[in-house]
């Protein structure tokens, strides 16, 4: 399977790594990739997300609610909006986390007959949506997003040659 290095670099290194850095994270995880995809105006994955009501702000709000709910299960009551903002450390270089490795594996495992072998934003979105577990799945479920339908639309876009 080949990749379009420019797409992958733009999404993961420039986009998601910057999102992780702004969030004060030491690792780039799937949620950072999802936010980065939504923020890439004019990008096919961003359009698919927007059509599902998932703008950058909507995704961040869903992730905040998921975090609050996860902490509540552990008996910790917190409101994200009342916490101090993260202080981005621009000297920090967040490393690729396990959830990104898994989403890339799922993207690579997606049927190459559907949309060729290019690893662009839509194939990365398919990799993000190809899981039933994890923070992104919980956040999207909590926001009422039909992940299965969104994944089907992304796969259809791949089949039509949209990357």
From TrEMBL:
Residues 1-70 form the Clp R domain. The lineage of its organism: Bacteria, Bacillati, Actinomycetota, Actinomycetes, Propionibacteriales. PROSITE patterns: CLP_R. Keywords: Repeat. This is ClpA/ClpB-like protein. InterPro entries: Clp_N_dom_sf, Clp_R_N. The keyword Hydrolase does not apply. It holds the Pfam family Clp_N. Transmembrane segments: none annotated.
